[in-house]
User: Fold these one by one.
Assistant:
Number 1:
Amino acid sequence: MPKRVDHQQRRCEIAEALFRVVVRGGVSAVTLRAVAAEAGISMNLVQYYFPAKDDMLRFAWRRVVELSVARAAAEVGRALESGDERAVVRAYLAAVLPSDERTRLLAAVQIAYFAADVTRGGPHPDEEALLPHLVRGLAEQITLAQQANRVSPALDAAMEAGALATMAAGLVTGILGGAYTAEAAFALVDYRLGQLFCP
Amino acid sequence: MPKRVDHQQRRCEIAEALFRVVVRGGVSAVTLRAVAAEAGISMNLVQYYFPAKDDMLRFAWRRVVELSVARAAAEVGRALESGDERAVVRAYLAAVLPSDERTRLLAAVQIAYFAADVTRGGPHPDEEALLPHLVRGLAEQITLAQQANRVSPALDAAMEAGALATMAAGLVTGILGGAYTAEAAFALVDYRLGQLFCP
DNA sequence: GTTTTCATGGTGCAGATGCACGATAACAGA
DNA sequence: TCTGTTATCGTGCATCTGCACCATGAAAAC
């Protein structure tokens, strides 16, 4: 029944199926047939929307970043309205940590892609830009907090931001690897925030 | 020229070739033919020493953990002789961070395996045990440092250990992803150690 | 009502991959 | 010296993968 179809939405649906395949079997499990079966469509249809497999993988990567960034922006935006610098910093970190099934999926997919690219000499400019972006956002907020006298001016804002951001990155792998529960991760974040925002 | 050969050493050589393949193209690039070519032997010989491909992957995983742990133990052991708690803590962290080509390779391989397993519902007990082990070792040393009055007793040793360990884990991905240089990572570690070991 | 476009399915094909079977030559032990 | 073990190689095979080509029916355009 060939009704007119929104190609972009179709691609997003296929990307969602791809995510599930990745979570279940890693990036190497992504085959045209597997994705098609997961999406409940024929393999040819996948090829219809993605001329080559690599196009599909690239689109899915951009999509997972887009989804993650949107979630993070919403979370940080809500905190920004409160005007509380500590809440903003916490929102930045909370946006990174996988807490529910959805964010867990997005994080797992990102790690799978990351690993596939760390090796392949990966040219994923977005991934490399993700951690630095987090560091910059945190540094900015910490500097603001220092000006508001909520963080000691003796601290190095850039260093503190780096420490928090890399800790969050490590917690992501810790959570996905089963070494940390989401609760323990947030406890650690709050512990560090308590040190930062004490004076 | 069939001289009598040490099978275990042969397996290790093949594993080294496998590492290079993984670093170059990810775990998915590991094929019998690719590993054989990298090792400069025929594919049949690889199969001779590893009955199935999965045996090879498993052996290589155990090997990379063994090599990493040995390196770390040596580094920490040297620091332990000095009796300086701060040096020991730093050694724990330095042992994790990829600083030269060799440790970079080992870290990349571990991340590749980690990602392949985070997804596959991975049953690699060693990997899950790696971060907790680091946390435990750090917590122990920090507690000792508190007893030696080199770290404020007001701090929570377990939390500090967790924060340092996860930061190190995040720095590993940061270094491999190109977001951090090894020097910047060590600067961050030393900054945090300066905070911990001030009083 | 006819024609054109478009979404979807079926099939085949060349290449790669893991693995099994068989061959061979060099060393070891009798 | 002879026989058996062992390290090594070559080849073939069933399977899977990405992709290309073609078919078809329904909607849209005219």
Note: The CA atoms of residues 5 and 11 of chain B lie 11 Å apart.
Number 2:
Amino acid sequence: MARAGLTAERLIRAGAELADEVGFDQVTVSALARRFDVKVASLYSHLKNSQELKTGIALLALAELADRAADALAGRAGRDALTALADVYRDYAREHPGRYDAARLRLDPQTAAASAGVQQAQMTRALLRGYDLPEPDQTHAVRLLGSVFHGYVSLELAGGFSHSAPDSQESWTRILDALDALLRNWPAAPPPAP
Amino acid sequence: MARAGLTAERLIRAGAELADEVGFDQVTVSALARRFDVKVASLYSHLKNSQELKTGIALLALAELADRAADALAGRAGRDALTALADVYRDYAREHPGRYDAARLRLDPQTAAASAGVQQAQMTRALLRGYDLPEPDQTHAVRLLGSVFHGYVSLELAGGFSHSAPDSQESWTRILDALDALLRNWPAAPPPAP
DNA sequence: TAATTTGCCTAAAGGCTTTAGGCAAACGCA
DNA sequence: TGCGTTTGCCTAAAGCCTTTAGGCAAATTA
């Protein structure tokens, strides 16, 4: 019989599409085999196991996010850059909810360190250069921004802000305004208690 | 043979313990049956299906969180209240990582509306009364705080801030300082473009 | 074209979910 | 106390998912 032309690359890419269509937790080796009209066992020549498929999708999503972030930041600074980066996450999560979920997969430390997640942190740091924060405040701010972006987007995706006024877009804009103001006016560390 | 004395309540409680021990996604009806030394099918007299078990754990976690939040807020205001509430989430996630994950489960809108998640939003709102924000800014701030608490705690739990300086506790404190400052100094809505 | 490699297949074992039907323990009421 | 009813846990079985082992044919290479 004719061969289907499977590769790990193609499988992971198709897995990512599947995740966006049916949810990341519904992505199984079996479902993927069905999509390629091929027997399940065949995929195991290309994937070590189900975990590898999921990790692959996660890494793909992280890389795509980092790409978009790099594009968005090019030539921008300050509030402009902040908004652009924030929208990258939000838009990606809306366009690719399955991939976005995948990007939240717990990776083992080694895999995580080699992933594009690292570049994302560096880009947030680059963005903050426009705000001129000294270390270690810059790190605190990186963590704050990461938390807000991730937190807001997940809560929004989970439906937390729908069906209630004001609409989510307005909150998003105002929250970015507020963060911009905060970064311009970052409070100094309080003096240690005597 | 002697009966095991199963009830939906006990199963869900045991499921929550199991989640904390082995991770929420490892909670299965089968694993729970093993823990009670009972055949799998027996649990289906008490649980409609696996989903009901997971939803039950999620609702339990949301209720426990709301309880702790109510305790923490009693008699506190301003920065004090902010810190107390924030620590409720962070501490709960560290003590009960499985339950905390469960609390993030996608609930159908009806279930979500009846859950203790609603009270949590109300408590955040109560906390904000100390900062005297007009509507709709108060809602924006509720969403911001929810995002930061959830975002920070999930990233921390996923290991995002470990093995890098400064330590996570310091960032947490400084981020709460910053949020306190921001709430005291919430920027007005920018004028609409002409 | 012959030899080798590679890719997809069949087969099979083991785990999880869920339903159906059975027997015995516990309960409730005379 | 005894009898009937309800309830709780059991066995059995079907369906889907993962993963491994071993086989045959297509693609590649010499």
Note: Chain B has a mean pLDDT of 93.
Number 3:
Amino acid sequence: MPRDGTATRSRILDSAERLVKVNGYAATSVDQVITESGTSKGAFFHHFPSKLDLARTLVQRYADADVAELREAMAHAEAATDDPAERVSAFVRWFEERDEALLGEESNCLYISILTERELVVDGTSDPILGAVVAWREELTRLIGAALGDREDAPDPEALADHVFVTFEGAFLLARSTGDPTTMRRQLRALRQMLEAVLR
Amino acid sequence: MPRDGTATRSRILDSAERLVKVNGYAATSVDQVITESGTSKGAFFHHFPSKLDLARTLVQRYADADVAELREAMAHAEAATDDPAERVSAFVRWFEERDEALLGEESNCLYISILTERELVVDGTSDPILGAVVAWREELTRLIGAALGDREDAPDPEALADHVFVTFEGAFLLARSTGDPTTMRRQLRALRQMLEAVLR
DNA sequence: CTCGTTCCAGACTGCCTGGTCTGTTTGTAG
DNA sequence: CTACAAACAGACCAGGCAGTCTGGAACGAG
């Protein structure tokens, strides 16, 4: 086997992820990706048969990392306490205490760039996003359902679970329009306080 | 003054809004807009000096309508009851009971398409979005602040106010990835229940 | 009716785009 | 050392893109 191309491939993916998160998919040209990654046309189309194929790889990689982070937060919450309601709090707080990668001003979510373009949804490029959404939903529905118990006026645990995803995506957008780097942290805090109130 | 061009201009704006909401701004070509609106290159560039200028007009128009809807919901909530907490509930419920335009499967938000592309943010195209965000924040902070009273452990009313905007945008994205048309309604319901719990 | 302005149609242009192709280098297997 | 395939580099291409330009049609003013 000849020289190793995985480093080049990773540089392309990293540059592409950054550019797509910042500018969107359609507004990002492969030439931009090539320039920023310091590679070439030949290298790009050697590793990815088309720009769309890059998008698919990108989404899959990002969604995998997203689910991994979910598991991590979930493990943390379950290790922290046995009380179901407190576990929900611990779960959200895990993200509140995250460093600048998630909370900073330049933070972005690849999902937004992909879901913005309907073509990428109908052709299946966004499928891994749905996979991640379902993973979040299932894990959190379990956690929240346990905290809700069997109250008669209990709200829909699945909707509450989905609302965590909703808060993340909505906060990313709000942060973009305001330019306020504290947005994500404040929204996560508000989410946690509301969940604590509804689970009380 | 010669013949009236406002109808043509409106057709262009309507088609463009639909296309941009569905496909994003960069992925929407001027030719597409021309075809869908049944006009021509000449008509388009007569009414809009550039594609970017179309985007600016589009965002301004959409944000104005958005703020108008805010005022409408606010007036409804204030007319419904005098109790501050119940006003918050009435406000959210106003949107829950909306018809398919907001809640249907094909519902979209122009804000997402615009905020996705950073260029449109830095060059000021997204400024009307910030105006709308601030309008929502101010009105809702007032409403929620009144409902919170002066409790010592009270959560940040501004963050809760912003969370309404966050819920809308996040739910739009969630609906896109799942394809479930009940998403928006369920998320609004969850938001209302959480607000009711935290304001109790 | 004439004149002038607005409104619009569509051919046209140059640039940028995603993608191809040819050639060269790099490493490994035998 | 030879052979061969993977890993690039960069010239090249066809199509699509935003934007221009010219000509004509539709009105109101005088």
Note: The domain at 56-199 of chain B is CATH 1.10.357.10 (Tetracycline Repressor; domain 2).
